[in-house]
Write a structure and sequence with these properties.
400 residues; alpha/beta; TIM Barrel; eight-stranded parallel beta sheet; 16 helices; Aldolase_TIM; FMN_hydac_DH_AS
Length: 400
């Protein structure tokens, strides 16, 4: 209806045009980090192809003038089966970063999953969101006291669940970043949770940073300037920032994480724990045996293994293996009809990732809000056109 007055959207509606608008807005390293995938990016394509391969089947003369889009997860009812996925280094997209995304999510009432690799500390984002729902995504590092401190802080920030990411115990082979020699964490970007953590900060005095070059190159000068700027933001010296970047890169993941470790995490918190990165049905069964509260079918948006199976392709088998355990999905979700397909295949909800980052790049907080509104609106229309009265009604009968 805004077209009557000549108003046009803040961000392109079509996913491909949205990505292109973000590419034009961002510098090459920022776009490479946000948009890139592993290897030849076959997994990224597999995620999109998996959605394209699923066909919806509408029913006629059984619809409703209004639909119930809401979903209940872990005792909380959310207005739509869409959550904002944890994305790291959002400062690459926009200076508002995680705070802008949190405000947009709060305006819609959907949960924002705070990333361990955030550009703003969880406390600042939680304050900006008020009472709106938020979860916390956890990377389990080799400095276990820091990991435990993150969980404690998430509880204090009002997080309603802990999402443990399992598919990034090693950083994937990402040619777009490699070609540009770009790892933002070395410049202090995406380290807000660490640089504000009391346990992590206590390590900085004991960890030596890289020695300064007597004849620094322009690249090293740029890195030093970025570290110094982030140091000023978080009250740390340049030497401490160098030490912080070094300690982070040495400790942020644990390649030898095992199922047995989950019992310690269970002992640290009473919050629901979801395992993110599940693709194999046997891993879903093990999650049930280990007392986890949910799983997220995900291949990290195609950023970890080149040639990996598309997330949606594995969803039905994981749902079957998980039994009564709630199953969520991410990787490849671009549209409201994608949301409908995932729910028809058994997902309880989906996580939206890159599209909202592109909206953030194009128009800040308002861009995130518009992308989220577009996805939810298309899902509502799709639901109605399929002849379903609620999100919970979607099932095999709505698939060809």
């Amino acid at each position: 209806m805004d077209g009557l007055s000549g108003a046009r959207p803040l961000v392109p509606v079509a996913p491909e045009r949205l990505q292109e608008a973000a590419r034009r807005k961002l510098d090459a390293p920022a776009f490479a980090y946000l948009a890139g995938g592993a290897g030849a990016e076959r997994t990224m394509r597999a995620n999109l192809e998996a959605f394209a391969d699923v066909k919806l089947m509408p029913r006629r003369l059984c619809g409703s003038a209004s639909r119930d889009l809401s979903v209940e997860l872990f005792g909380h009812r959310y207005p739509a089966p869409v959550l904002l996925a944890p994305l790291g280094v959002l400062e690459l997209a926009h200076e508002g970063a995680d705070v802008a995304v949190g405000r947009a999510a709060a305006g819609m009432g959907v949960p924002f999953i705070f990333s361990s690799q955030a550009s703003e500390p969880m406390e600042a984002v939680a304050a900006a969101m008020g009472d709106a729902p938020r979860w916390f995504q956890l990377y389990w590092g080799t400095d276990e006291e820091v990991t435990r401190s993150f969980v404690r802080r998430a509880e204090e920030c009002g997080a309603q669940a802990i999402v443990l990411t399992l598919d990034t115990t090693l950083l994937g082979w990402r040619p777009r970043d490699l070609d540009l020699g770009n790892l933002p964490f070395l410049r202090g970007q995406g380290l807000a949770q660490y640089l504000t953590d009391p346990v992590f900060r206590s390590r900085l005095a004991a960890v030596g940073g890289p020695a300064a070059s007597p004849r620094p190159s322009p690249a090293l000068l740029k890195t030093a300037a970025s570290l110094a700027a982030h140091g000023r933001k978080f009250g740390l010296s340049l030497a401490q920032m160098r030490a912080g970047a070094a300690h982070f890169t040495a400790s942020y993941t644990r390649p030898d994480l095992q199922w047995e470790d989950l019992s310690r995490l269970r002992g640290w918190t009473d919050l629901p724990i979801l395992l993110k990165g599940i693709l194999h049905p046997d891993d879903a069964r093990e999650a049930v045996r280990r007392g986890m509260d949910g799983v997220i079918v995900s291949n990290h948006g195609g950023r970890q293994i080149d040639g990996e199976v598309g997330s949606l392709s594995m969803l039905p088998r994981v749902v079957e293996a998980a039994g009564d355990l709630p199953v969520l999905l991410d990787s490849g979700v671009r549209t409201g009809s994608d949301v409908a397909k995932a729910l028809a295949l058994g997902a309880r909800a989906v996580l939206l990732g890159r599209p909202y980052a592109y909206g953030l790049a194009v128009a800040g907080e308002a861009g995130v809000r518009e992308v989220l509104r577009n996805v939810v609106a298309e899902f509502d229309l799709t639901l109605g056109l399929l002849g379903a009265h609620s999100a919970g009604e979607l099932g095999a009968e709505h698939l060809a």
